[in-house]
Amino acid sequence: MSTYKNFTVETDADGIALVTWDMPEKSMNVFTMEVMDEIDAIVDATVADAAVKGVVFTSGKSSFSGGADLTMIKSLFSMLAEEQARDPEAAMKKLFDAAGRMSWLWRKVETNGKPWVSAINGTCMGGAFELSLACHGRVAANSKSVKIALPEVKVGIFPGAGGTQRVPRLANAQDALQMMTTGSSLTAQRAKAMGLVHQVVEPAELVNAAKQMIKDGLKPVAPWDEKGFKVPGGGVWTPAAAQLFPAAPAILRRESAGNYPGALAILKCVYEGLQLPIDTALKVEQRYFTEILRTTEAFSMIRSLFVSMQELGKGARRPTGQPKTEFKKVGVVGAGFMGASIAYVTAAAGIPVVLIDRDQEAADKGKAVSEKLVADSVGKGRLTKDEGEKLLSLITPTPDYATLADATLVVEAVFEDRTVKKAVIEQVEAVISDATIFASNTSTLPITGLAENSKRPEKFIGVHFFSPVEKMMLTEVILGEKSGDRALAMALDYVAAIKKTPIVVNDTRGFFVNRCVFRYIHEAYDMLIEGVPPAMIENAAKMAGMPVGPLSLNDEVAIDLSQKILKATVADLGPQAVDERHLALINKLVDELDRRGRKNGKGFYEYPAKPAKKYLWPELKTLYPQKKAADVDVTTLKQRFLATIALEAARTMEEGIVTDPREADVGSILGFGFAPYTGGTLSYIDGMGVKAFVALCEKLAADYGEHFAPTPLLKDMAAKGETFYGRFDPYAKGREAA
């Protein structure tokens, strides 16, 4: 048998070929054109070899596969753009064929005449699980590392390599739709309960169990290729289906406001495909997949949530020539909720942490935050007791600054007060080594100003976490005017070590995320003052694609924090820098009514005792004369929310605060959930076209105020027909170097 670059094939005495997927120089197996060509060749070779009675397909890595390689996805869009310019009809044919390559290769596996068993040893996502579904048998390891999912909907597409046809032919339609429209992960046990996996065995027995299936006479025929096959639950012409399928689009619309074409395509593929023979059904799926690939949503989401996120996570902005950092110890100064949580995620990455506060009691209280998080994880089975104890053993609470002497990195997370931070900087710098980098976790104070308190501003940088730290995947790395390459490289290495996605921004008040967040919140203030009913404000924001309404978000971040920020802005920049009506509203809520947000149980919402749910404060509508709901245009409300945030993102590009459009897009989605279907703030503008966006802003400015006025940069780009990804091409340097 031939040798392969990405696979080894070993046939045992029983005639069972063990195909082990182990891509060289990759931490995880992914699908590339080369990998698919080799699988194609392996099918041909095993079919042709009379000695081979069956095939076990497994991974040589700790995971099975994460799905498609980002370069393959990028090349698909590049090909489409290039071909469309030359011959649109030929471009569609090429895209259709490319979209079906994986699907028909898996069908070839399914109909090759010899039994294949997939031995799933770890994460098995997307096309890898679709390949497993095309195998005649599936065995999964009884391990928490096994996560089975078809997550494509999360990046704007859907399972287009047979997933929408095989899953509902194995599991009942409701479970199948739930799995695919949410992209949620299944444990091995849940996959077995749904009928998607045949056996769950101990990891050491995985390959043996897979081979035994073949020895026991596994038929090399899929159930749906046998005469008399019936879909679980009876298909689409049953009373249960008559309840499910008409309701499914309505439920999907309630959950996604119709913003995700890929999710709707899943419903169509399942409903239509279950009425057809498998080969015709796969062709239907291929057509829908080709159609979805052509949507702006798919292009933008794949670019931001798949390609850009991976590129940034792998250090796209890391300065060259800097050695990779090995973190032997990290210091966290400030054991309040943020500092304590930073210590937790650091220890969770296997890095020893010193957690410092003013006295032992305060430091111990900080470690208690980690103890609670660990107890919760152990209780939910995410950590074993031993793993939890090991994590906690890495956190040393102490008031002794001298313990920072050998720290690789020190993260300051004390109160947002320049005087307090100045004292901490001086105490830390008195004991740390010259090689140690100092990072401030500040959400509002400019890094350059804080670095003036440092004797080594080139080794001073901002690392801004978001709350709750253990859940939020974004971290802003903020460059002060004098921050050096070593500081940036170490900050990015640290963010990578704790498994978060970084964006690099230059120094400014509020950095990138908070500037955009407060534009969102301030637009809601404008709407309240105009008399828009509060419930309409919240619902319109969700319909626009935001995960939470702006009033709810303001309650979470605290209304008195908004007051502090507005007052600090006035103190630093003068009264004209804020809308006096906003300050009056917030002063009334905080100073007169003591409504500070969720933290004191009353803000824009009321927070009754559990299990009752929060609800909008009934008296909110009495603060301003109310408009009738019928007189308010919901589409305009949605446009206002998205446009005001996108405008602020464009301003940060114009001001040089953000220099890479990938970071504005990824930062806006991960930082505060900016309508993911748009691909992020700048993709939202590029997706509709800068010219159309400028026209929208001019209309909104005429109706709702000058804060919607398009900036000079946007007007210039509109006149030249440019896009953000064209004008600020993040790949230009790489092409020049090549």
General description of the model:
The protein is α/β, with parallel strands linked by helices and 738 residues long. The chain has 3 domains: 7-294, 2-enoyl-CoA Hydratase, Chain A, domain 1 (Alpha-Beta Complex); 330-510, Rossmann fold (3-Layer(aba) Sandwich); 512-555 and 629-738, N-(1-d-carboxylethyl)-l-norvaline Dehydrogenase, domain 2 (Orthogonal Bundle). The protein is 51% helix and 10% strand. It has 30 helices and 18 strands. An 8-stranded mixed sheet has the order 11-10-9-12-13-14-15-16, with helices on both faces. Strands 1-2-3-4-6-8 form a 6-stranded mixed sheet, sandwiched between helices. Strand 12, helix 16 and strand 13 (437-440) form a beta-alpha-beta unit. Helix 20 packs across helix 24. The longest helix has 23 residues, at 88-110. The protein is globular, with a radius of gyration of 28 Å.
Provide a compact summary of the structure.
This protein is an alpha/beta fold. Helices cover 51% and strands 10% of the residues.
Outline the fold blueprint.
Blueprint: E1 7-11, E2 16-21, H1 33-48, E3 54-59, H2 70-86, H3 88-110, E4 116-120, E5 124-125, H4 127-134, E6 137-141, E7 148-149, H5 163-170, H6 173-182, H7 188-193, E8 199-201, H8 206-215, H9 239-256, H10 261-273, H11 278-293, H12 296-313, E9 330-333, H13 337-348, E10 353-356, H14 360-379, H15 385-393, E11 395-398, E12 409-412, H16 418-429, E13 437-440, H17 447-451, E14 460-465, E15 474-479, H18 485-497, E16 501-506, H19 513-530, H20 534-543, H21 550-557, H22 559-573, H23 580-592, E17 605-606, E18 615-616, H24 634-654, H25 661-672, H26 681-688, H27 690-704, H28 712-720, H29 724-727, H30 732-737
Parallel strand pairs: 2-3, 3-4, 4-6, 5-7, 6-8, 9-10, 9-12, 10-11, 12-13, 13-14, 15-16
Antiparallel strand pairs: 1-2, 14-15, 17-18
Helix pairs in contact: 1-3, 2-3, 2-12, 3-4, 3-11, 5-6, 6-10, 9-10, 10-11, 12-25, 13-14, 14-15, 19-21, 19-24, 20-24, 22-23, 24-26, 26-27, 27-28
